[in-house]
Amino acid sequence: DIVLGLSLLIWTALAASTNCNVNASGGYANCLSKSNPSAEAVKAWHSAGLAYRFRLHRFSTGSSWGYWQFNDLNYHVVSLGLGGAITAQVDNRGSANPASYYVSLQ
């Protein structure tokens, strides 16, 4: 599908992304920071990293958004309207130690 392909190309060009390794039961790990993000995407790479929690944090004000908890291997995308430096955080609630998660901020 051409529209989907163009959407993914635009996302990739504008986004910062990483694979974030997070230990089980270790609490939230800081995975990626970006200023003024307009969207986020997160995905677990392996079922041993399920379930996991995802949230956004702004250290300058102590503000947090989320958490969102996921229990599948799908990409999860959320539109944002946040200003300032925002950090994406993942909490591994699964059994893998560590588990790897894809995290992207656009």
Give the SSE layout:
Elements: H1 2-14, E1 16-22, E2 29-35, E3 39-44, E4 52-58, E5 63-70, E6 76-79, E7 85-92, E8 99-105
Antiparallel strand pairs: 1-8, 2-7, 3-6, 3-8, 4-5, 4-7
Give a quick set of tags describing it.
8 strands, four-stranded antiparallel sheet, 106 residues, single chain, mainly beta
Structure at a glance:
This protein has 1 helix and 8 strands; from the N terminus they run αββββββββ. The protein has one helix at 2-14, and strands at 16-22, 29-35, 39-44, 52-58, 63-70, 76-79, 85-92, 99-105. Strands 1-8-3-6 form a 4-stranded antiparallel β-sheet, with no helix packed on it.
What order do the SSEs take from the amino end to the carboxyl end, as H and E? HEEEEEEEE
Q: In angstroms, what separates the terminal alpha carbons?
A: 22 Å
> SS-based structural class?
mainly beta
Nearest-integer average pLDDT: 90
Count of alpha and pi helical runs: 1
Please describe the biggest sheet, giving its number of strands, its sense, and whether it closes into a barrel.
4 strands, antiparallel
Strand content: over 45%
**Lateral strand order in the biggest sheet:** 1-8-3-6
User: Rg to the nearest angstrom?
Assistant: 14 Å
Question: Which ranges are low-confidence, i.e. pLDDT below 50, for 5 or more consecutive residues?
Answer: none
What oligomeric assembly is this protein in? single chain
Helix content: 10-25%
Could you tell me the number of beta strands? 8
